[in-house]
Write a structure and sequence with these properties.
Elements (H helix, E strand, L loop, with lengths): L2 H11 L8 E4 L19 H10 L10 H15 L3 H8 L3 E4 L10 H15 L5 H13 L3 H45 L1 H21 L1
Parallel strand pairs: 1-2
Protein name: Tc1-like transposase DDE domain-containing protein
InterPro entries: RNaseH_sf (IPR036397), Tc1-like_DDE_dom (IPR038717)
GO molecular function: nucleic acid binding
C-alpha cells in the first residue's frame, strides 16, 4: 500500500458515506501524505525565503535563518495539512486521527484479529490459494453488527479505561509536582526562608524576655 493507492481508494469511498461522517484513521504513512511540503530546519535559507514569498509573507532580507524559521512556525498550521483530510472536507466529511502508538483505540484491530484467528484455525493445507479462500470467507463474516460491536467495545471499555488511568495519574502525580515545585521555590529563596525561620523561632523568646 502507498499513499497514492490509498487516496484513490478513499476517493471512491467518500461518496458512499453520509454527510458529516467521521472517518477514523491511524497515522500510517500512506494515510499521512501532506498537501505540500512545509519549510523546516532542513531547508536552506534561500528555500525558506522562497516558501515565504510564495505565501506572500513579508520578511526582511537581512533576517537570520532562525528568524525565518520562527516566522514559518507562526503560519505553519494554516498550510500543514493532510491530503486525505482535505479530500474528506471537500465531501463534507471529517477525518479524526488516532494518537500515535494507540492502536487499541482502532476497532479494526479487533476485526483483523478475528480474521487472522479464523484463518489460523481453519488453515490445514498451508497452501497460499487455500489461505486466500479462507481470508475471503473470514471477510464475509465481518458484518455491520460485528463492526458496531467492536466500535462499542472501544468506546465503552478501552476509552473509559484510558480516562480512568488519566485520572489516576493526575491524582498521584499532581501532588508530586506540587511538592517538587515547592521544594524548588524554597531552595531558590533559601535566604528568605532562613530569615522567616529565625523570626518564627526567636520571636516567642524575645516576647517572653520582654514580658
Amino acid at each position: 500500500m502507498n499513499g497514492e493507492a490509498f487516496e484513490n481508494w478513499f476517493l471512491g469511498i467518500l461518496p458512499r458515506l453520509k454527510d458529516n461522517s467521521v472517518v477514523v484513521l491511524d497515522n500510517a504513512p500512506y494515510h499521512s501524505r501532506k498537501l505540500e511540503k512545509i519549510s523546516n530546519s532542513s531547508f536552506k535559507k534561500s528555500e525558506i525565503q522562497d516558501w515565504l514569498r510564495a505565501k506572500n509573507m513579508p520578511f526582511d532580507t537581512f533576517m537570520l535563518k532562525l528568524q525565518l524559521q520562527d516566522l514559518v512556525k507562526q503560519h505553519r498550521a494554516k498550510y500543514d495539512k493532510y491530503i486525505v483530510d482535505e479530500m474528506a472536507k471537500a465531501h463534507n466529511k471529517m477525518v479524526l486521527r488516532l494518537p500515535p502508538y494507540h492502536c487499541e483505540l482502532n476497532p479494526i484491530e479487533l476485526i483483523w484479529a478475528d480474521i487472522k484467528n479464523f484463518v489460523a484455525e481453519h488453515n490445514t493445507t498451508f497452501k497460499l490459494s487455500d489461505m486466500k479462500e479462507l481470508f475471503n470467507l473470514a471477510l464475509q463474516r465481518v458484518t455491520p453488527e460485528k463492526w458496531l460491536k467492536c466500535v462499542k467495545h472501544v468506546q465503552e471499555k478501552v476509552e473509559v479505561a484510558m480516562w480512568e488511568l488519566d485520572n489516576i495519574i493526575e491524582r498521584y502525580i499532581e501532588p508530586l509536582i506540587s511538592t517538587s515545585m515547592m521544594t524548588a521555590l524554597l531552595v531558590k529563596n533559601i535566604d528568605v526562608v532562613k530569615h522567616i525561620c529565625i523570626i518564627t523561632f526567636c520571636a516567642p523568646l524575645t516576647f517572653n524576655h520582654l514580658y
